[in-house]
UniProtKB/TrEMBL annotation:
Similarity section: Belongs to the DEAD box helicase family. DEAH subfamily.
GO CC annotations, alphabetized: nucleolus
E.C. number(s) listed in UniProt: 3.6.4.13
Positions of the UniProt region annotated as Disordered: 250-309, 330-411
SMART domains named among the record's database cross-references: DEXDc, HA2, HELICc
One example of a Gene Ontology biological process annotation: maturation of SSU-rRNA from tricistronic rRNA transcript (SSU-rRNA, 5.8S rRNA, LSU-rRNA)
Catalytic activity as recorded in UniProt: ATP + H2O = ADP + phosphate + H(+)
Species the sequence originates in: Neobodo designis
Protein's UniProt name: RNA helicase
Length: 757
């Protein structure tokens, strides 16, 4: 992310020295998230010694530091797509770098598909115009990309592009799986694991991955409360806590490990002997890998995969359906016969069924309906979801034959640790910071700054920290294996947020965060069986789970007539494309021949979905009211709409005043809250009434953007909207003084069952 753009710069792209090779156009790097675009631009500017905001700039939604001298620009994917609507050939650029392509957002897939046609077209025009139009270089980057979707896709790239594999980890990362997979109370499991790491392990930052903002806020509060009574200072320069514990084991454990390693070396091939010796080699703190195993891990000496899956089965009521021998073979090194494989497959199927049932139950309490996304199609990590708030739960220690010999020594060590874990008796303190997309930029930047002296950094984040950004000095990663994804409701074509298992590729990305600045450890709060049999290898492309109206309309506006033939890396299902075409025709965005109409061009210019755009244009043309623009702006910030009347939530107990809540309409509530914020846009006001300042600020910026665009497109759209199919009906909705003061009207698109009251 930071080096490839510099290689291009040094090769002459982006500055006058590249004129001889036709490389003088800007270099643009796309990122899936705003925080990554901003921070990578700042980092590259520092490394190049160029001015940040001068030669190296960034451009994200509502914010940029562009200058006339900009030669290297970091942007979000949606920003570049918007630029293509006015300059399809991207003539200002000599190189485009698509970073983190494995995330497979809709914007990324559409962007790659368009660029796959622009690159050869620019080359052909370069040859025809004898240099007037320059060639374009395209680089697609990812650490865990499913390469076949790109390189083997002849529709996308008729000639397979060259593939360069680069080692992405500079330091080894040891992975520790959990013996017991917590299906519901994974936040509690993360709380326990952070405490163990902070108490027992050597210096280094901790990065915890959770699914939602609500979970992050809860865990931050619990850890802060626990460590508020800390009295002894954490010293990362002279750390003796764990070496003290290790010294108590030295006489008993190290001798046994050496003997065990010697026996293994005598019976294993040479390469396995080398691997075995690496298990007993010591690091800079005088510790072997086994010393980093914590309570509840598969490699903690208390039982391996079978015990973990037995616990998983017992807690989920599926004990009768699990064959523990087969499950041991799933995660272990021994071979299994056909019967064991059948048992394993049956067990994996039951785990998958349970996971689906759990998601259904959890999502019913915390689904959040999405309207529009960042830069029209993809927010970086929007939203919040409810989760069960449970207390601490101690995990039992089941001794087996492997650990029986060490019981006395380990017992003494655990007794010593328990004595030290009294109130006011922790050895050090924890610097706890949240990280998610709704945080303001200043708060997000805190994770990149050194923690106060005498504290250990602990960042609790969503998948926003999974790729692109590098948090300094992270040595330990705690991975719950959960992520909040948008899923498509096929019957209504609406989207809901749902907590799901991450993919294996995403799990590897998370583990890699621990190996950026030194050797690290990743603690996965799920078993090897869940990793191997429940998690998919790669994340499904977003285009398979999102409405396609905005994508199809943009293509039609760019005069791409045959959307079904578009070179997507992974084409969407044909019926979804057809459904989008039908909806757009009913909205009047497409004519009977499915060509873009003047109304469709107006809708394409608005940064909201075509349905919201149509409501806005029709309401403004008929009534001249601002209310629909405000509501559409608020709904388009996907984190805002929740399943309850607590429309905006901070994750705490603060609720909006009753005067802001409308008993019969969430939309009127949105409007009232927005108007209250417009009267007092301070952070203090937002905290007092329980709304998110950053969200409201973005909604206000989106409203201003919509108003400016509507002023340009309403005259053009008014002439063509009256005869379009599926015209909106309107009727007054004022039923009393309060509603009349809101100035709202009932607007309904009867074709899509989308109603605003």
């Amino acid at each position: 992310t930071t080096q490839i753009p510099q290689f291009l710069w040094e090769a002459g792209y982006g500055h006058p020295e590249g004129e001889a090779a036709y490389r003088e156009g800007m270099i643009v790097v796309t990122e899936p998230r705003r925080v990554a675009a901003v921070n990578m631009a700042k980092r590259v500017a520092e490394e190049l010694g160029e001015g940040f905001g001068d030669t190296v700039c960034y451009h994200v939604r509502y914010q940029n530091n562009l200058s006339e001298n900009c030669k290297l620009k970091f942007v979000t994917e949606g920003i570049l797509l918007k630029e293509m609507q006015s300059d399809f050939m991207l003539r200002r650029y000599s190189a485009v770098v698509v970073d983190e392509a494995h995330e497979r957002s809709v914007s990324c897939d559409v962007l790659v598909g368009l660029l796959s046609r622009i690159v050869p077209l620019r080359q052909a025009l370069f040859e025809e115009t004898r240099g007037e139009i320059k060639p374009l270089k395209l680089i697609i980057m990812s650490a865990t990309l499913r390469v076949a979707d790109f390189r083997d896709n002849l529709r996308l790239f008729p000639h397979a592009p060259p593939l360069i594999e680069v080692a992405v980890r500079r330091f080894p990362v040891t992975t520790h799986f959990a013996r017991k997979t917590e299906v519901h109370r994974y936040v509690d499991a993360a709380y326990d694991k952070v405490r163990q790491i902070h108490k027992k392990l050597p210096p280094g930052g901790i990065l915890v991955f959770l699914a939602t903002q609500r979970e992050i806020d809860m865990l931050c509060r619990r850890l802060a409360e626990h460590y508020r009574k800390t009295r002894i200072v954490y010293d990362d320069e002279r750390y003796t806590k764990h070496s003290l514990i290790a010294s108590r084991r030295e006489g008993a454990e190290n001798a046994k490990k050496a003997a065990k390693a010697k026996k293994k070396a005598e019976r294993m091939p040479d390469e396995e002997s080398v691997a075995s010796s690496s298990e007993t080699s010591e690091d800079e703190f005088g510790l072997a890998k086994g010393d980093y195993a914590l309570d509840g891990d598969e490699d903690d000496g208390q039982g391996a995969n079978a015990e973990g899956d037995a616990g998983f089965a017992a807690t989920t009521g599926l004990a009768d359906d699990f064959d523990y021998g087969a499950m041991r073979n799933i995660g272990g090194d021994t071979d299994s016969d056909d019967d064991d494989a059948k048992h394993a497959a049956r067990a994996a199927q039951r785990v998958a069924e349970l996971s689906a049932a759990t998601n259904k139950a959890d999502s019913s309490a915390g689904n959040h309906w999405a309207a529009d996304d960042e830069d029209s199609w993809g927010d970086d990590d929007a939203g919040d979801a409810d989760n069960a708030n449970g207390g601490d739960e101690d995990e039992g220690d089941d001794d087996d034959a492997e650990s029986a010999d060490n019981a006395d020594d380990d017992g003494a060590v655990r007794d010593a640790v328990a004595e030290e874990d009294e109130p006011d008796g922790e050895f050090d303190t924890l610097h706890i910071l949240p990280l998610y997309s709704l945080l303001d930029q200043q708060s997000q930047q805190r994770v990149f700054q050194p923690p106060p002296k005498g504290t250990r950094l602990c960042v609790i984040a969503t998948n926003i920290a999974e790729t692109s950004i590098t948090i300094p000095n992270v040595r330990y990663v705690v991975d719950t294996g959960r992520v909040k994804n948008k899923v498509l409701q096929r019957d209504t074509q609406a989207q809901a947020f749902k907590i799901e298992w991450i993919s294996q590729a995403a799990a590897e990305q998370r583990a890699g965060r621990a190996g950026r600045v030194g050797p690290g450890h990743c603690y996965r709060l799920y078993s090897t069986a869940v990793f191997a049999n429940v998690m998919h290898k790669h994340t499904d492309p977003e285009i398979a789970r999102t409405p396609l109206e905005s994508v199809v309309l943009m293509m039609k506006h760019l005069r791409i007539d045959h959307v079904g033939n578009f070179p997507f890396p992974a084409p969407p299902e044909p019926h979804l494309v057809k459904q989008a075409l039908v909806h757009l025709r009913r909205l009047g965005a497409l004519d009977d021949a499915y060509r873009c109409t003047p109304l469709g061009a107006s809708l394409a210019a608005l940064p909201v979905t075509p349905r919201y755009g149509r409501i806005i244009l029709d309401a403004v043309r008929r009534f001249g009211k601002r209310a629909p623009q405000v509501v559409a702006a608020v709904l388009s910030i996907t984190a805002v709409a929740t399943a309850t009347m607590d429309v905006f939530v901070l994750g705490g107990d603060v609720k909006p005043p009753r005067a802001l809540l409308h008993p019969g309409s969430d939309f009127v509530t949105f409007l009232r809250v927005f108007n209250a914020f417009a009267a007092d846009p301070s952070i203090e006001f937002c905290r007092r009434v329980g709304i998110v300042h950053k969200t409201m600020g973005e909604a206000a910026a989106l409203r201003r953007q919509i108003e400016a665009l509507v002023a340009d497109v309403v005259p053009e759209s008014a002439s063509g909207s009256a005869s379009s199919a599926g015209a909106l009906t309107a009727s007054a909705a004022a039923k009393g003084g309060a509603d009349s003061a809101d100035g709202t009207a009932l607007l309904a698109d009867f074709d899509s069952n989308e109603v605003m009251a």
